[in-house]
Amino acid sequence: MTGTLLFHNTMRIREGHLDEFRAAIGTAVEFVREHGPQLMVEVFIDTDAMLAHSFQLYTDDESVLKHWELSDPHIRDVMEHCSVERFEVFGQPGERVRAGLRTPGGESFATTITPRLTGFTRVAASR
Hints:
- Helix content is 33%, strand content 29%.
- By secondary structure, the chain is an alpha+beta fold.
- The chain has a single domain, classed as Alpha-Beta Plaits (2-Layer Sandwich), CATH 3.30.70.100.
- α1 packs antiparallel against α2.
- This is ABM domain-containing protein.
- InterPro entries: Dimeric_a/b-barrel (IPR011008).
């Protein structure tokens, strides 16, 4: 089953990598702003806890797969400066997306998938 998917990626920033993480995530977000299929990308950071939270909204599985294909080099750059602490998927991803929920190096991480009940998306003008 597919449909709207919301990803929440909680990343633990590596000690001594805060500036590099900020630069890499900034470059990655600018790239997907120009070329990515996401409807929304927002990243929040808690520097005291050295945690970052990325939220990404997709129309369906195909848009997730397209993002991974286009953005792999940027994802790898970001991952040099952090580790995935928790990855939450809201919606019902298909098998190809489920199978792809791994680091660029192929390692797994804590993942939860919560099926959608109801809702809608209202898209406002981007900043």
